[in-house]
Amino acid sequence: MDGIIRITVVGDGNTGKTCMLYAYKDKKYNDHHSSTVFDSYSMSIEIDGKPRRMILTDTAGQEEYDRIRILAYKECDVFVLCYSVDCRISFLNVRNKWARELMKIKPNCRIILAATKSDLRKIYNGCVSTSEGLRLKKEIRANDFVECSSKLLLNVDIVFQKAVIAAIHPHFVKKTKPKKEECAIL
Amino acid sequence: METVTLPSGQQLVVPKIVNDLCSFIITKIDTEGLFRKGGSKSRQNEIRLSLDAGCYLGEEHHEVDVASVLKTFFRELPEPLIPFSFHELFLRCMLLSEHQIEAVLLSCLLIPMEHLNTLAYFMQFLFRVSEYSPFNKMDAYNLAVVMGPSLLPAEEKLPHNPTQRLTKTCELFKLLIENAANIGVLTESIIERIAITSSMSSLNVDDEANVKKKKKRRSGSLTRMLNGLKKIVSSKTEEVVQEFPPDLLLTPCITRSAKKRKIESAGISNKKRRQIINSLPQQAILNTPYTPVSKNPDAIKKPTPETCEKTKEKKVLWSKSKAKVEEGSSKTAIQRRWSAVSSVAAFRRKKTRNSCAASLTHQKPKILEKDPQIDNRINDLSEELTKHKEPETENYVRISKVEYEEIKNRVSAIERRISIELENAEPEASATCDDGVKDVEMAYEQTLVQTEPLSPTTDQLAKRLSRELKIRRSNEPKVFRSPSARKIGSLRRRSRERDQPTTAEEPPKTRSNSFHGNNSPSVVANSMTSNSSTVSWKSAQGFFNATPMSNPGVTENCRASLAKLRSQNAGMVLAKAKLFDNLVDSECSSNKSGESNCVSSQTRSTKIGAPRVLDKNSRIQSLKMEERRKKAISPRKRNCNKSPQIRMQRISVKAPPPQEYNMDRTILRDCNRRGSEPTTSPKCVTPRNAPQIKRTLNPKSPRRICRTPVSEAKQTPLKVIATTRNTHHY
């Protein structure tokens, strides 16, 4: 390991990935709505008194960009997998699409599940609840689950702190279930 | 496909599904994150299934899902909306520091017609979506980012710099969305240039419509030839005909000015034009400029002899099999498009075939009064060709490649003759048309220059583009050739063509020819003896001579070339007989093997003599026979039948008494001395020959021979190898 922590943010389109990164990076809410193609920021953080470089990679959620996004997966320590609480489809897609995609390309990857736009809970009914999020976390065997709001700058830092912790602590390596041995004859 | 009239007055032909989905999405255009949100995969699959089943979209469908389905549709097109071959061009346009918009819009004109229509429609739709960006938060850039990879996907192999490529793609589509109204519309500068070019040609709408109608039924290559002919003839007779350029490559631009567009929107619909263009050579093609509404009559380029000539040359220079495939595919495309017309046409064609050459439809427009004879002949041949070029339709006879080649040769011979006859007319025509070509080429060059500063590889790109679009680069030497030089070129080409296939293609050709010459009496039961002995040659020849108004000059000319070909064939037969001698040596004595030469050269004399002395009736009769046989014998069978020829030769070598052969030899010598003179009667040669053939071959019908190819294989392994290779051509 070269000491660089690579964090990649993935999730459905329009879930607030870019906004979350901006909120973490610039500590302010950026209300611009523009789709991301591919972006990466480099920043320096201090861990245990030592400065470490951290590279944050922003990806596009649309399936058109599947092939480009995969390029970012190769050298990545932690994934921040986002869904937005006001959009149940994005929540369902975590299970149906994203977890599968990550497992397929990086079977032992570490995942932080992040529920974005938590401020919208007060406005809309039928948002994805915290308990549903926790259940999903267990289901996809994510390392952690955080609910955050970029607009209110709430919990955004915690998302990335947990990501860094997951990246540098080896005991966070997930235990994989031993696969059932397949019948040799079949 | 369906025609859509946009608010701007443009009429576009777009896939029905695209129109359906877009009009559904437009009802909910203010949804936030339209096209950006992924939607549910399972619901999208439901929508896809219901759309596939022909159902309509209803209230229960979510617009985000519908938008995703639309994206998926574009993404899963076999050829993306902007075809792969144009990706490089578009991305390089985006690297320009100035005139980006112009470059991109001009590049748009190069993509195929259907693509251009759909692109224009969809970009205007996206522009409308972006107008609602305060509500749906999807501005042009957002939409470009979301749609870019669907419309211009990266190739299978990941590009060197994917991120930059993607950024450029997004910029490109942002630009396209913002300039959606101008996609497919020509700029004023080009219009001016074209106006200059076409100002010399006056407008005659009735004639134009007439010509278009007639053209629908013709095959591509001949139409091209005829276009050139018409041009020449009409300019000679000072009757000007309006036509679309036969080969639109030189100009990416049939056009009309922006003002005129609106005035003339009631003119010919785009759909109709597309159909017309489709009936034109090369199917109108990659480069058909997009003319959203009716065309500007002033802006139509004159088809020039040069263009025609070029296309012809290119065509001939193609590898033969490829050419054939091309013909077939384009033909089917026409057929599909003209399903209504084609059924009638097919019927007529069939009828013509049955009544064989006697009743030919004279569909030539009146403009061609000057040379009706030639045209009639061409018509006949075009009929013949159309018949032969449709192997997939059950109505039509399957034609072997050999026969196709023969017809092609014949056509080229006629072409040559025509060019000689019309040489007087040509200088005038080319003088007037040269300017036009120059202008168009200038326009093209300008386009090239615009893209030139892109990078050092632009030249390469342009070359590639021109290759794909079949554009002749303006600096190539052929463009400004004089008629005589062109003639020389065509002669040279023809001779090249003749030399070329000696290795691979010639042997099967001769074999099957000689086979037909010898074996046909056994195939046809018994009544036809000498008359039908030269099957493959007679078909075209018969057509030729049976034409009511035949031009003796042309016929003679053809005969000379035919005689040359025949003597070539005979040479091949001789060579083969020699080859065969080696096999026979073990069985036969040496003097008998010498006689096998004689047998084969008899074949030759038969061939030379046969078609000439036939009277009209017997010709027609034999043609009918031939057609029946063509139906009966599949190409495969024909191949199988090659071995009987060998067998027959072998048997005939043993069987007949040597005296008779000596007599034949004297006759043969006569034939050789006389060359192509048609004095040798086949009746004095073949009847002597025919009974032998019948006797030897009667026990083995072709059907039986087909069933026992294994034993043949044992006898002549070499031939069998050749046969198997040959079958791939069919």
From TrEMBL, chain A:
The keyword Amino-acid biosynthesis does not apply. Signal peptide: none annotated. It holds the Pfam family Ras. This is Rac-like GTP-binding protein ARAC9. SUPFAM superfamilies: P-loop containing nucleoside triphosphate hydrolases. PANTHER family: RHO FAMILY GTPASE. Keywords: GTP-binding, Nucleotide-binding.
TrEMBL record, chain B:
Residues 1-184 form the Rho-GAP domain. Residues 510-528 have a biased composition (Polar residues). It comes from the Eukaryota. This is Mental retardation GTPase activating protein homolog 4-like. It holds the Pfam family RhoGAP. Residues 298-313 have a biased composition (Basic and acidic residues). Gene3D superfamilies: Rho GTPase activation protein (1.10.555.10). Residues 288-313, 473-528 are annotated as: Disordered.
